[in-house]
Amino acid sequence: MTNRLAEETSPYLLQHKDNPVDWWPWSDEALDEALRTDKPILLSIGYAACLWCHVMERESFENEETARMMNELFVNIKVDREERPDLDAVYMEAVQTMTGQGGWPMTMFLTPEGHPFFGGTYFPPEDRHGLPSFRKLLEAVAEGWRERRDVVEKQGRLLTDQLGAVSKLKPSQGDIGPHVVDQAFVELKSSFDPLYGGFGGAPKFPQPMTIDLLLRLAARGNDEAGPMVTNTLDSMARGGIFDQLAGGFARYSVDREWIVPHFEKMLYDNAQLLRSFARSALATGSKFHEQIATSTAEWMLSEMVDESGGFWSTLDADSEGVEGKFYVWSIDEVREVAGDDADEAIRTWGISEEGNFEGANILVRAQDPTDPESLERARRALLERRSLRVRPATDTKVLTAWNGLAASALAEAGAGLGRRDWIDAAERAMRFVLSELRVDGRLMRSYRNGVVKHLGYSEDYAMVLEASLRLFEATGRTEWLRTAKSIADQAIELFHDSHGGGFHTTGDDAPRLVARSKDLIDNALPAANSVFAMELQRLAALTGEESYRDIAAQIIRLMLEPVARTPLGFGHLLGAVDLYASATREIVIVGSPSEERSRMEQEVRSRFLPNAVLVIAEHPDDETKQLIPLLEGRDGDGVATAYVCTNGTCRLPVTTAAELAVQLDG
User: Fold this and answer.
1) Cβ(326)–Cβ(389) under 8 Å?
2) Res 640 pLDDT > 70
3) Residue 642 forms beta bridges with which residues?
């Protein structure tokens, strides 16, 4: 017998459709049921690639006795955090307020009105490590609801009143200057691991937004920032966190050395790391980093693309119930599969009899290959053998925000590294989002198997805005700039807090929750507000509409006080600070397509220019010039001509790539 989740499209919810728990999806009907039966709500939030979500399901939600208690005592609601970041944000803040920590699976108990009064994360089936068994917890919460209901409800109301504290912050009047980023760098140095790269100890996360910030600092002359980037990217690319056979990065490393990953692969991590490695390749000329960027893009395009053109969300950590089983090898299996190329594979990838992970081998780049052709033959052979194993499950829902992030990374990296096929893939993904994930002009959140669900959130709009601007620069097509402007204007209308500043997570047209949050802290993904702070500045530079820049500055001012003190929580926002505090370079190339114009374009795209915007036009008409004032008076008389300006002060126009290179280096 299936439960109500059988009608859902989320792979995470569908994983629970055969549980004996009488699950509801979050809905008005579920909330009405709690009010009708006068039962508290048990809210369980997770996601498809979450290993401990699977563990708790096996231990508790598939257990008949546990399910009986849940059904008798509570209205049980299951939520996919990736589909409903609004619910996740509100109740994660609640559990962090109560316990000082958070994570998934999230287990929350709510009044029928939705007020949280108790919660935590994973609970075991038996008392363990100071945690009560899940059944004991159910009994205790139910008893509290029956015997001390007035206290429980008061606690829920008090906790609800505390929620959304971050969203109530007022803008600072401090100076948005380079000193903010410089102070953040001092803090970053104190947590940097000089031996293995990255920040902090185990578990260690890649932190691509912080890496991108360091690349910005290196570009403006910070001699310490560049080596920190190289150390970190080299160490990650050589570690087990990077899939040495198929490309792509796991979520994080459980050790300081990047050897043992938490094996789940997320679209958003790989999109960001593709961008970081590509940017580093442009900034440093590293062919190794270009190779890792290429492998990461190829993994995304070979394993994560829906037939519709959009990108899937995640790949599980486990297969056949065992974490990492899909990825690890014994030395004997490598010898069998690789044959004459086995010695090169064993030496390069550090394979041993004893292994480096529970008696097996996670492949790491222990040393550079002595025979690259032999290693490549071994890689293909091992990859073919691995394809016969039981694959980790793929979460095949297409999320608007994550597709925007992936398209942005592919467009930027494709333009910089000369990969037109990546740009084409980015365009396909965004055309799919804009055609299938828009209903009556309104962006939606999630698509799977032809079904579109949930109103889009501010991060969906922010990431689509970014992708549209990157595609405009990569292709020169004004349709993408018009899309960017339309998306920005609609986002301001739906989400912008015109009084307090910043963008709410949910739109004015969305159902109300017990609190309304603002996504302000950079976590695994850039916060919606950080992306708006960056991209609205870039949109202002391209369109000349300073109101966009004013809104971006207001966002920065909301977090100006903590941003330099805790830079790991604001990596992307600090990039927006750097853009605001720096001179924006405007580069315009006009004229008929020619070899010289192509060389000019490549001269720009082959460089890491974090605070530049690029406009390419053939013969701009009046309508285009109205959209892009930077084109006014710049026709080039049909001859390929480049104009370089900095904050409105322009150099002389040039007609050769060599002359343009001199201006870009100046």
Assistant:
1) yes
2) yes
3) 589, 654
Of 432, 454, 480, 447, which is closest to residue 613 (Cα–Cα)?
480
What's the average model confidence in pLDDT over 234-254? 97
With contact defined as beta carbons under 8 Å apart, do 321 and 333 qualify?
A: no
Determine the Cα–Cα distance for residues 408 and 410; give it in Å rounded to an integer. Answer: 6
* Neighbour tally for 360: CB within 10 Å: 17
Find the radius of gyration of the CA atoms of the chain: 26
Both tokens assigned to 29? 């009907």
Asked if 453 and 83 count as a contact pair (C-beta separation under 8 A), the reply is yes
Which range is most confident: 74-78, 566-570, 634-638?
74-78
Q: Flag whether pLDDT at 185 surpasses 70.
A: yes
The DSSP 8-state label assigned to residue 455 in this structure reads: E
What span, in angstroms and rounded, lies between the C-alpha atoms of 245 and 174? 49
β partners of residue 192: 199
| Three-state secondary structure call for residue 517 | coil
Task: Map tokens 């108790």 to a residue.
Answer: 118
Percentage of residues in the chain with pLDDT exceeding 90?
91
Terminal Cα distance for the chain, rounded: 70
Query: Residue 456 and residue 297: Cα distance in Å, rounded?
Result: 26
CA separation for the pair 95, 591 (Å, rounded):
58
pTM comes to: 0.95
